[in-house]
Specification:
By secondary structure, the protein is α+β, with helices and mostly antiparallel strands. It has ten helices and nine strands. The chain has a four-stranded mixed sheet with strand order 1-2-9-8, covered by helices on one side. A three-stranded antiparallel sheet has the order 3-5-4.
Length: 189
């Protein structure tokens, strides 16, 4: 681990490779698992305010789940996530013609309906952030359904931190990312 600002960063995001391989996994991370996507407070506020702009990009099953459970669910005090459809896929997921899961929020963004791409936890994946009172910890989250993404990242020689560059800049800013690149150069040499 090394520190950038108030973030402790695992070296694994530099030394391991990853490129999401949707052709192989079909977006399994949006379907499998025990919970929805983690949401930040600003994200739940965005969903509350902009749901009507996102809804046309969602499936009927997803909209029904959101109507029943809400635009987000609270697990415990201060911990929020997206609702699920029948304890399976995220309620904001839609499926393409080939069965690949797509983010309805991201589709709304691509359709210029909203200016927010998707939850930062999804955008950063396979990095997970754990927030503590004094710092954040960034770790590589290994999940067997993403093995094809690891293999593709290895073959293309793209480290995790470069794959999620846009998301890291979105979360922490350009200066933070520049420090991460310097740390990566030091680790790799």
């Amino acid at each position: 681990m090394f520190q950038i600002g108030n973030s402790l960063v695992s070296e694994e995001i530099i030394t391991n490779s990853f490129v999401c391989n949707l052709k192989a996994c079909k977006g399994s991370c949006c379907v499998e698992g025990e919970a929805g996507a983690p949401l930040e407070k600003t994200e739940i506020e965005f969903l509350e305010k902009n749901y009507d702009l996102i809804a046309p990009f969602l499936s009927e099953k997803g909209k029904a789940a959101i109507e029943k459970q809400g635009k987000f669910v609270q697990l415990k005090k201060g911990v929020f996530e997206t609702p699920l459809v029948d304890n399976n896929e995220c309620a904001y997921v839609v499926f393409g013609n080939n069965g690949t899961a797509q983010c309805g929020i991201e589709n709304a963004h691509r359709g210029n309906a909203i200016d927010w791409k998707k939850p930062i936890s999804c955008h950063l994946y396979p990095i997970r952030i754990k927030e503590y009172s004094e710092f954040n910890a960034l770790n590589y989250h290994r999940w067997q359904i993403c093995d094809s993404g690891c293999q593709l990242g290895d073959s293309l020689k793209i480290p995790i931190y470069q794959f999620v560059k846009e998301a890291l800049i979105r979360k922490f800013g350009n200066d933070w990312y520049a420090e991460l690149e310097i740390a990566a150069q030091e680790i790799n040499h």
